[in-house]
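Quick start: what a row looks like.
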Amino acid sequence: MPTLFYYLGLKFHFYSNDHLPIHVHATIGDAEARYQVSPEIKLIENRGLKTRELRLAEVAIEENKEVIIARWKEHFKDKNNKNNENKI
């Protein structure tokens, strides 16, 4: 589970087995929300984050959108290359 960054108590990460569309998980304690990042930022699912925390998460994602996308592509590019090597 690559951790991307922390913002005001929220942890932003994705899972190594995640799938498209590009999205990020925001967690605090046991609460978690999932946001689509590209092509637009959109809340996909919320399990327990409060309204204030959701707003903070959206601000953090907006401010770090390019970083999130770059890290996603970097992480899953390596994984896709390994899968393609196994097919040869």
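That is the whole record. Residues 82-88 have pLDDT under 50 and may be disordered. The first helix runs from residue 51 to 63.
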